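Before a colleague's protein record goes any further, I have to sign it off. My question to you is simply how this chain folds and whether the C-alpha cells agree. I do not need a full report, just your reasoning and any doubts. This is what I was given:
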Amino acid sequence: MSILILALSIGSFFTLSIPTVASALLRSLEHYPALSDNDLQEMMAQDPATQPQAIVILGGGRLTKAPEFGNLDTVNGTTLQRLRYGAYLHKQTQLPILVSGGQVFGAATPEAVLMNSSLSEELASPAHWLEPKSKNTAENAAFSAVLLKEQKIERILLVTHAWHMPRAYGAFNHEGLKITPAPTVFEAPEHVERNINHFLPSAHALSKSQFALHEYLGQFWYWLKR
C-alpha cells in the first residue's frame, strides 16, 4: 500500500509539472473573457444608471524588504500585473479606483498602501479608496463592499487574474455588488504551436498547477461555507 501511495504521489507531482497540463488547468479557470476597447466604450456609453461606478483591484502579494527598493516592501509581480491593467482601465474610463489588500502575514504596511504607491508613483493613477484589512479573497469582497456602499457604489469593474476571477466574482457577488469582470493575464491559447519543451517537467509549470489547485480548493471551501 505504501508503495502505491508513493507511486501515486510521484506520478501526480510529475504530471502537475508538465507545462501542457499546467496550462490546461489554468485555462479551465478562465471563465470570463477579456474586455475589448469596444466593450469599454459601449459600457461607458450606457445609461449612467447601469454603468460601472468604480474599478476594484485585488492584491496578489508583496516583496518584503526588497533590496533594490532600499529594503522597503513593495508589490510583487502578480499584484503589479493587476495594477497595470487597473490603471489602463482607469485611463480608458476615468472611473475611480479602490485597491484591496491587508497585512496577510502580519507585515507592517498593508498591501493596499503598497498598491497605491505603485499606482501613484509608477502608473500615474492613484487610488481613491484603500481597503487595508483583508487577508483573503472573501475579505477583499466583504470589506470592499462596505467602503463602496458607503459611497453609494454598487456596480464595479473587478480586476484580478483570469484564473482567480471565478472565485473573486463569486465572493463579490455574494456581497450584493454588480460585477463586470475585468480579468487580466490569460494563459496561452490551446492552439499555440507545441514543441518538446511543452512536455518536459518544469518548476514553472508546477507553480502554475499550484495556482490552479489553490483556486479549485478555494472555490470548494467557499461553497462549503455558504
The mean pLDDT is 92. The first helix runs from residue 2 to 16.
